[in-house]
Write a structure and sequence with these properties.
The chain has 7 helices and 10 strands. The protein is an alpha/beta fold. Strands 3-2-1-4-8-6-9 form a 7-stranded mixed beta sheet. Strands 5-10-7 form a 3-stranded mixed beta sheet.
Length: 241
């Protein structure tokens, strides 16, 4: 089962080469990696071009709009595979992630249009966060993940994270992401499925090998800013959520 990894990025010159190295070390390589750059100013594209020769086809695209939503949409439109994996540019993956995702899709993918990946807060692909503040964030986020996963398993999905998910390319709701809002690609994409009566088409990759590790917030101020952004968009949530 060939899988494309779609990476909408902005100013990820330090982090993105690490993620690409994780993808290069996979026991099952991605069929294609598509990086959609949103006018990075820190040399993100140059960091990719000057990196090691990657053992998979890698395409760098320019974001045709503004923000992650437009980049994600254009990357998925460019896919030639049935499925696209979406992760953030500053995440990390263990060496069996692609293999685990492919296995889950081969077993259950016929019933899914979108699936959540296991996602945690950590500084590294393996092991706990390095700091106490990071560990507290990890516990907090694990509680949210547990709620999101349980909701999917009960057939009433209510939350997704664009930091780690899988989409059937033909089912992605390109025109329903609310581009006028600065964030929420994950929430509004999920809402589109629910509004169309396809809640049962949302799955969960129940395999720890598929774990996506996302960086913790570096300070309490950054964490509060993040939660304020999350809270601000809730007023725009459709009734389906």
């Amino acid at each position: 089962l060939p899988l494309t990894v779609v990476l909408p990025v902005r100013n990820e010159a330090d982090a993105l080469p690490k993620l690409l190295a994780d993808l290069a070390a996979q026991t099952r390589l991605p069929h294609h990696v598509i990086v959609v750059d949103d006018a990075s100013e820190d040399g993100t594209v140059e960091a990719i071009e000057h990196g090691e020769p990657w053992p998979f086809p890698l395409t760098v695209m320019t974001n045709p709009g503004q923000g992650k939503k437009a980049g994600l949409s254009s990357g998925i439109r460019a896919c030639t595979t049935t499925w696209a994996i979406g992760v953030d540019g500053d995440t990390r993956l263990g060496p069996e992630a692609i293999q685990a995702i492919a296995h889950s899709l081969s077993v259950q993918g016929a019933n899914w249009d979108m699936a959540l990946l296991p996602l945690r807060i950590a500084n590294v692909p393996d092991g706990p966060p390095h700091t106490l503040f990071g560990q507290l964030q990890a516990l907090d986020f694990a509680a949210m993940q547990g709620w999101a996963i349980t909701a999917v398993q009960r057939g009433k999905p209510a939350m997704a994270s664009g930091g780690g998910w899988v989409w059937r390319c033909s089912a992605f709701p390109h025109d329903r992401l609310r581009p006028e809002l600065p964030s929420g690609d994950d929430v509004f994409a999920l809402a589109a499925l629910l509004e169309d009566g396809r809640a049962d088409r949302v799955g969960w990759v129940d395999d720890v090998r598929a774990m996506v590790s996302a960086a913790s917030m570096p300070s309490l101020t950054h964490l509060l800013d993040q939660r304020i952004r999350w809270g601000a968009k809730t007023a725009q949530y459709p009734d389906a959520l």
